[in-house]
Amino acid sequence: MAHATTDTALAGSYGAAAAAAAKTPGYWGGVWRKLRRDPVTVVCMAVVLLIVLAAIFAPFVAPNDPYATSMTRRLKPIGTDGHLLGTDELGRDMLSRLIYGGRISLFTGLTPVFLATLIGGGLGLLAGYFGGLVNTAVMRTMDVFYAFPSVLLAVAISGALGAGLLNVLIALTVVFIPPICRIAESVTTQIRTEDYVDAARATGASTPRIIGTHILPNVLGPVFIYASSLISVSIVVASGLAFLGLGVSPPQADWGLMLNTLRQAIYIAPVNAVVPGVMIFITSMCFNMMSDGLRSAMDVKD
Amino acid sequence: MLFYVIRRLLYAVPITIGVTIVCFSLIHLAPGDPLSTVLPDNASPEVAAQIRAAYGFDKPLPIQYLVWLGNVAQGDFGVSVQSRRPVLGDVLPAVRNTMILAFAAVLLGFSFGILAGAVAGHVEGSLLDKAVTAFAITGVSVPHYWLGLVLVVVFAVNLGMLPAMGMGPGGQSGFTIDWAHLKHLILPAITLAVIPAGIIARSVRATVAEVRKREFVSALRAKGMPRPRIFLHVAKNAAPVVLAVSGLQFAQLLGGSILVEMVFSWPGTGFLMNSAIFTRDLPVLQGTILVLSLFFVLINLIVDVLQVVFDPRIKRA
Amino acid sequence: MHDTSQAATLPIADDTRDRGGPMQPLLIVEDLKKHFPIGGGFLRKAPSVVRAVDGVSFHVDKGRTLGIVGESGCGKSTTARLLTHLIPPDAGSIVFDGDPVGPYGGITVADLRKQMQMVFQDSYSSLNPRLPIVDSIAFGPKAHGTPTRKARADAEELLGLVGLNPRQFARRYPHQLSGGQRQRVNIARALAMKPRLVVLDEAVSALDKSVEAQVLNLLARLKEQFSLTYIFISHDLNVVQYISDRVLVMYLGEVVEIGDVDDLYSAPSHPYTQALLSSRPSMDPARRRIAPPLTGDPPNPVNPPSGCRFRTRCPLAEPICAARAPELAALPDRPGQSVACHARGVGTGHSLSPAA
Predict the structure, then answer these.
(1) Where are the beta strands (DSSP E) in C136-274?
(2) Which of B34, B50, C160, C258 is positioned for an S-S bond with C248, CB 3.0–4.6 A?
(3) What is the pLDDT of residues B232-261, one digit of tens each?
(4) Residue B169 carries which DSSP code?
C-alpha cells in the first residue's frame, strides 16, 4: 500500500523544505545563538580562548625560555624589565612559565571531565535505559564511590598510585564518573518513560537506533550542563593535586606546582608566590560562568 | 518514618562494605609489591617469604581482605611503616584536629552562606542579590589553597596580625579555647569556609526565591500576613533543601581540608595523608582514608534521616 | 492549510497483506492479563499486585472502529500498550488477521508492530523535542531500511495528508506547534509505518473541543483513505459514540459490557454503563439530573472487591454479586451485545435475572 500523492504542489516542495532547514538552525544552533548574546559568557569564552591559544602556541607566544634559570635574577618583582610578571625562585620567567603551565593545567583539568563524561555518561545511559539488574549493579557501585568526599578520593587514588600526570588523570576521572553517571541515569530513566520512546519502540526499531535517535540527544543536554560545571572543579582540584606534589614533577611548568615551589618564597616575594593561583582562579571562574551561561541558554525553549 | 529510617540504616551497610573494599584495594593499586615498603633492602628471599607470610601477603586477595576487615573491626588498622606505631594512634588525633577545623569552617561558612542566600533570595534581582551571586560564583570557583596563601600574604606576612602555621603557639598540637589557639584557627577556617559558603549561598538563594514564588506565599500575602511571619513560612519550606546541601558540604569539608591543612601546616588528616603519601606509608594513608570516609558515610546518613524528620514527604530509596 | 479532499482512496482488496479475508477479524484478543507488582523488594512491604488488566477479551473487525471507554485507572491505556507489546502481557493471546502473535508459529511481535501503530494522549511527550517533526515521522520507515531521502519525502507527503503544509512545518520542532498540530504529526507518524490497525489512546482528549472535532474528522477521512481499523480509547463518551462502530466498557481491568454503538448507547445493560451514560450532562434542562448516578471513586485495584468488581458502587448489588464473578455473556434478546452482570444473565440467582 503506497500513500497516494495528494497535492501536486508537494512534489516541488522538497527543495523549499531543504532551504527552510538551513534557516532553522536546530536546538544546538539556538543555544549557540543565545550564548553569543550573553556578554558575561562571551567575555569568559574570550578569556578561556586566549589562555588556551596561548598554551597551544606557547613556543611562539612565550617571551622567554620557561626552563632558563638565573641565579642572579631570582624572584624579581612584577614589571621587571624583560620579565613582565617577574621571575620565580630559580630566576625563570614567570609569564613564560604561566603560558607553558597552561598546557598541563588545562590538560589535567579538561581531560578527566571529558573521559568521565564518556564513561559515566555511557554507564548512566545503559543503566537508565535497561533498568533492572543492570541499573542496580551500576548505580550501587557508583554509590560506593559517592561515599567518599571527592577531594579525598582524588588524593587517595593519586596518592596510592604515586605522583605523575597519568595518575592524576586516572584519579580525577574516577572521581567524576559517579556524579555524571547519576545525572545520565536519572535523565535517561525519565526520558525512557516518554511516549516518544514508546512510539519509537512501537515502530520496531532496534534498541541502538532508539537510543541513538531518541534517548542520547535528549540526555546529552543535561549531562553537558553538569559536566561543564565540573570543569571548573576539575581545574581547581587538578592544580591542587599538583600543589600537593602529586602531579608533574619539577622543572615542568604547571600552575599548581608553581604555587607549591613558590611557597618557600612567600615571605620574600609574596606577590610572585600567589600569581600562579590567579591563573587557576581566572580559568576556573571563567569555566564556571560559561557553564552558568550554557545552563540558562539551554534552559529556555523557543 | 521509622520504617524509612531503619531502611536507610540498613542501606548504609553495603555502602560501608563497599567503602572498606575500596580502601583495601588502595594498597593493591599502588605500584610494586606492597611488601617492599616493609621489607629491609638487604633481606634474603627466605626472610622475604617469612615476612610475606607474617603479613598474610601470600594468601589470595579475598582472604587478605577478610583478615584485614576483621582487624579493622577490632581497631587494628596496621602499623605505620614510618613511625612503627599503630596507625590508629596517629589517625585519631589527626581526625580530631581536622574536625576542629571543619567545625569552625562550618560555623563560618554556613552562617554566612545561609544568611547571604536568604537575603539575596528575598530581594531577588536587586544589587544586593547580584553581589551575593557574584560572591557565590567566586566562592565556588576559587582554588581555596591559593586563597589560603593570599590570606597568609595579607594577614601574616604584610599585616603580621595572625599566625600562618600550625595549630597553636610553639607548634603544639593540643587545642584549648583561648585566643592564642583561636588565632591559629582563623585563617584556615576562613579559607576552608569559602567554598561551602558559596555553594550554600547559591542554593539557599535559589530555594528561597523559588519558594517565594509559590502560590501559598501569594495567598499568605493576600490575607495580609506581616512580612516577618511570611518569612518564617518561606524558611520552613526552604529548610529541607538547605539542610541537604549543608550536610553534603560539611561532609565534603572533610576531604577539602587536605589542601588547606597543607597550606597552614595544620596537623590534621590532610597533613598526615600528605606525609604518608610521600613516605609511601600506605597503612597510614589507608587508615586515614578509611576513617574519614566512614565519617562521611555517617554524616550522610544523619543528614538523610534528619531530612525525613524535617520533611515527611521525602521517602527516597 | 492544505486541501487533501481529492486524495485517492485505496480499496481494501488492494492490500496484499490481507490474509484472512474480509470476514476474519483483524484483531482477536483473548483473556489478556497484566498484573503490576508494587512494593516488594528488600525490606519493603510484602509485594502486592495491581490487576491493571485482568482477563480482557474482544475482537475488532476489519475496517471498523472499536471504542474503549471507562474511568481513569480502569486499564484502558494499559490494554493499548499490551496490544502493541510495549508492555509484555502476563497472559492471554493476540491473533492478528488470523495469525497468533508469539514465538510459536504465527507472527512475531516485530511483524505485529509493522501493522499496528499507536497514537498517544500527550501530544508533547510523544514527540522527541530534539527532532524536527519530519524526522520524527521518518524515523520508523528509516529504521526499517527506507533510504533517508525517500523516508523524508514520504513524511512530507504525510504531513500534507494530515493537513500540515510540509513547506511550512516539516522542519519545525514540536514546541513550535500547537497541541492539535502536534497530534496531527503523531497521526502522520503512526501512518508512516503503513499500519492496518491504529490504536488511539486518548488521542483527542487533551485537545480543545474545536480542535478535537477537526482531528476526529481527519481520523475519519484517513480511515477511509487507507482502509484503517481503529481502536479508539477515551473517557469521553460523546467522542466514542461519534467515532465508534462497537464500544467496549471497562471497569477495574475487566470488560463489563461490549456492543454495537447504537445499541449500547440507546439501551445500556450493565449498571455501570447505565451510570456512565446518565452522567453525561444533558442539553435539555427538563432532564437535568439532581443526584449523581455514580458516587465515590473506583475501589483500589490492588485489592479489588470479590465477585463482581462493580458491586461496591452498584445499585443492584445482591449477595450473589459478592460471591461469584459474573461472566461476559450475550444478552438473550440482543446477541450482538454482551454484558458481565448477574442481574442480566440467565439463571444467575440474582433477583432481577431474566427467565430463560
Answers:
(1) 197-201, 229-233, 246-251, 254-260
(2) C258
(3) 888 888 888 788 888 888 888 887 788 899
(4) G
Alpha-carbon Rg for chain C in angstroms: 22
Specify if A1 maps to a domain: no
By C-alpha distance, which of C28, C37, C81 is closest to C58?
C28
Q: What is the model's pLDDT at position A48?
A: 93
Q: Delimit the domains of chain C by residue range.
A: 24-249
Residue A247 lies in a domain: yes
Cβ-based neighbours of B300, under 8 Å, separated by 6 or more: A147, B247, B248, B251
Measured torsion, CA atoms of residues B223, B225, B229, B233, in degrees rounded to the nearest 10: 10
* H or E stretch at B108: helix B87-122
- In Å, how far is B58's CA from the nearest CA of chain C? 38
CB nearest to C171's CB, from A24, A199, A202: A24
CATH (domain of A122): 1.10.3720.10
For residue B5, the chain C residue with the least C-alpha distance is C43
- Which residue type occupies C173? Y
Distance from CA of C43 to the nearest CA of B (A): 7
Return phi, psi of residue C312, to 5°. -70, -20
Rounded to a whole number, what is the distance in angstroms from the first to the last CA of chain C? 58
Say whether C140 and A203 touch across the interface (CB within 8 A).
yes
Question: C-alpha distances in angstroms, C161 versus A179, A206, A252, C204, C224?
Answer: 47, 28, 68, 18, 13
Number of domains in chain A: 1
Question: Using an 8 Å Cβ cutoff, are C200 and A44 in contact?
Answer: no
Let me know the angle formed at the C-alpha of A85 by A57 and A258, rounded to the nearest 5 degrees: 75
Q: Do A284 and B141 touch (CB under 8 A)?
A: yes
Interchain pair A281, B142: CB under 8 A: yes
Q: Which of B36-45, B178-187, C284-293 has the highest mean pLDDT?
A: B178-187
Strand order in the sheet with C65-69: C116-119, C197-201, C229-233, C65-69, C246-251, C254-260, C338-339, C329-330
Alpha-carbon span C46 to A206, nearest angstrom: 36
- Residue C118: exposure state from Cβ atoms within 10 A (0-12, 13-18, ≥19): buried
Interchain proximity A280–B278, CB inside 8 Å: no
Cβ-defined contact of A301 to C120 (cutoff 8 Å): no
d(CA A269, CA A75): 6
3-state secondary structure of C154: helix
Domains (range + CATH), chain B: 88-316 (1.10.3720.10)
What's the distance, CA B276 to chain centroid? 19
Is the CB of residue A199 less than 8 Å away from at least one CB of chain C? yes
Note whether B157 contacts A: Cβ–Cβ < 8 A: yes
| Contact B9/C at CB under 8 A | no
pTM recorded for the entire structure: 0.83
Q: Inter-chain contact C166–A205, Cβ cutoff 8 Å? A: no
In a domain, A217, yes or no: yes
Task: Write down the pLDDT at residue B35.
Answer: 65
Pick the CATH number of C24-249 from 3.90.226.10, 3.40.50.300, 3.10.105.10, 3.30.1330.10: 3.40.50.300
A231-276 pLDDT per residue, tens: 999 999 999 999 988 888 888 889 999 988 888 888 888 888 888 9
Q: Which of residues 174-233 of B touch A (CB under 8 A)?
A: none
What residue numbers bound the domain in which A251 lies? 26-67+81-297
Q: Which residues of A touch B157 (CB under 8 A)?
A: 266-267, 270
Q: Please give the full DSSP string across C280-309, using - where no structure is assigned.
A: SPPS-GGG--SS-SS-SPPPPTTSPPSSST
Residue C143: closest C-alpha in chain A: A205
Q: How confident is the model at residue C139 (pLDDT cuts 50, 70, 90)?
A: very high
Specify if A37 maps to a domain: yes
pLDDT digits (tens, 9 = 90+) for C319-332: 888 888 888 888 88
Contacts of A21 in chain C (CB under 8 A): 132, 171
